[in-house]
Automatic annotation (TrEMBL):
The keyword Hydrolase does not apply. Gene3D superfamilies: Cytochrome c-like domain (1.10.760.10). It is found in: Periplasm. It comes from Photobacterium arenosum. Its main location: periplasm. Residues 20-105, 114-205 form the Cytochrome c domain. Pfam families: Cytochrom_C. Residues 1-18 form the signal peptide. This is Cytochrome c4. Keywords: Electron transport, Heme, Iron, Metal-binding, Periplasm, Signal, Transport. It comes from the Bacteria. The keyword Metal-binding applies.
């Protein structure tokens, strides 16, 4: 029943997305380049790579950055910088931006050798004894996620950014994950495991 409820929720949410225009998004993305680069690659490791990311995921994040600003942080995804950037955007603006960044070639990252032993085990298999699901269950063997389900492409993302997000999920500082799935997993990860996963997923592509 839970699986059916999730499927119906996903299908219902698909009807609320605006159709994005790549060219319009390109023009609107000029201000995004200061942090995310002209090619959708974050200028430093603290910023995510947006190039090739699923448009529905990008759109969802923009909506939730704005929601956090309009609800005083009680809902959505809190980030003072992105909240300020998202505030003036209409739903069409968000759809256009999402379409544009999705159209850019995805960024390829690297996996550090020292992260493979722990990172690969957790990513591919998880830890049944601790109730940790394998990351591949949602993000796929190559870290590409899926657009329809709302799971983001995490391959090629900077280790610094992934580490920050996993830590925020673990500490409850980020809570816009579907059915608290990321919070449930991250809550059981140690600092060492978060470090390993953060460095491991960069080379998945």
């Amino acid at each position: 029943m839970k699986k059916l409820a999730l499927i119906f929720t996903l299908l219902a949410s698909c009807t609320s997305w605006a159709q994005g225009d790549v060219e319009a998004g390109k023009a609107k993305a000029a201000t995004c380049a200061a942090c995310h680069g002209a090619d959708g690659k974050g200028i430093t490791g603290q910023y995510p790579n947006l190039a090739g990311q699923h448009p529905r995921y990008l759109e969802k994040q923009l909506k939730e950055f704005k929601l956090a600003m309009t609800t005083g942080g009680e809902q959505g995804r809190n980030d003072p910088v992105m909240g300020g950037m998202a505030m003036p955007l209409s739903e069409q603006d968000m759809a256009d931006l999402a379409a544009y960044f999705n159209s850019l070639p995805a960024i390829e990252g690297t996996t550090t050798e020292s992260s493979i032993e722990i990172g690969q085990q957790l990513y591919r298999v998880g830890d049944a004894d601790r109730g940790i699901a394998a990351c591949t269950a949602c993000h796929g063997p190559r870290g590409n996620g899926t657009s329809l389900s709302g799971f983001p492409d995490i391959s090629g993302q900077p280790a610094e950014y992934i580490k920050k997000q996993l830590t925020m999920f673990r500490e409850g500082q980020r809570s816009n994950d579907m059915n608290a799935m990321m919070r449930s997993v991250a809550a059981k990860l140690s600092d060492k495991e978060i470090d390993a996963l953060s460095q491991y997923v960069g080379g998945l592509h």
